[in-house]
Write a structure and sequence with these properties.
alpha+beta; 9 strands; 40% helix
Length: 257
């Protein structure tokens, strides 16, 4: 009987101990799990927020730098493009207006200026202008344009072909320095240039014209006693003019001419 009771007491004690231990272990596990879960969640949230903030800062910084760089590159590109176009357009206009042969051949020549000629001479083929300022010392300096043969609109090269000599020229240009009484102290005759007749008008039976000469170069020459030809002087001087214009279409005609 004692043994039975003793065994029952032992079993009860063991069962109680087991239940107590189980309860204690469960309580401990719950306590450990709950704080760990809360702390882990908070830490995770904090880490995620920190990561999000860091990523946002990185993105903002990257975007700002990228935008600034893009703006800077775009601005620089636009400036360079504009400058290039300006430079390209300037270089093209200069090339269009210049005459390399004229620039080369006119080196060392005296540049002359001729105000636009608006009065024609007594004959259709005679157009006289004046240098301003004058080259000479005592009298006026004259530029003479003679249009011979069939006078019509067109472009003609000076200093070549028939226009190479005064005796044969059909479009003839000369400069007379200190001109007086049908003679001059110095003479210059064309060696280079382009003469263009832009308009021909019949005025009282006389052909009056308008036109221009570009890239004109004349070299010093001497004339014969009959004024029928010019012979270039070796090592003589030269004069040049970029543009010479005339318009004698409003000059009245001359009866009997």
């Amino acid at each position: 009987m004692k043994n039975k009771n003793f065994i029952e007491e032992i079993l009860f004690i063991l069962l109680f101990s087991a239940l107590s231990c189980f309860a204690a272990c469960s309580s401990s596990d719950d306590k450990e799990d709950m704080p760990a879960s809360d702390d882990g969640g908070n830490n995770e949230a904090t880490d995620d927020e920190q990561k999000t903030d860091d990523e946002q800062k990185t993105d903002d910084s990257g975007n700002t730098a990228s935008d600034d760089t893009a703006d800077s590159d775009t601005s620089d590109s636009a400036d360079d493009s504009g400058s290039g176009t300006s430079d390209t357009n300037a270089d093209t206009e200069s090339a269009d207006e210049s005459d390399p042969e004229f620039e080369q051949n006119a080196e060392g020549c005296t540049m002359i200026e001729v105000p636009k000629i608006t009065m024609g001479g007594a004959y259709a083929d005679e157009i006289n202008g004046y240098l301003s300022p004058a080259m000479g010392e005592n009298a006026i300096d004259i530029i003479k344009i003679l249009l011979m043969g069939d006078i019509k609109e067109g472009t003609y090269e000076l200093g070549t072909g028939l226009n190479e000599t005064y005796m044969n020229c059909e479009q003839c240009v000369s400069v007379w320095v200190d001109a007086e009484l049908g003679a001059a102290r110095e003479y210059y005759f064309q060696t280079h240039g382009t003469l263009t007749i832009t308009e021909v008008r019949d005025v009282d039976g006389i052909k009056r014209t308008a036109g221009r000469i570009s890239s004109l170069i004349l070299k010093q020459a001497e004339t014969n006693e009959y004024m029928s030809d010019f012979l270039f002087i070796p090592e003589g001087k030269c004069v040049a003019a970029g543009i010479v214009e005339w318009d004698t279409t409003n000059t009245p005609g001359n009866d009997g001419d």
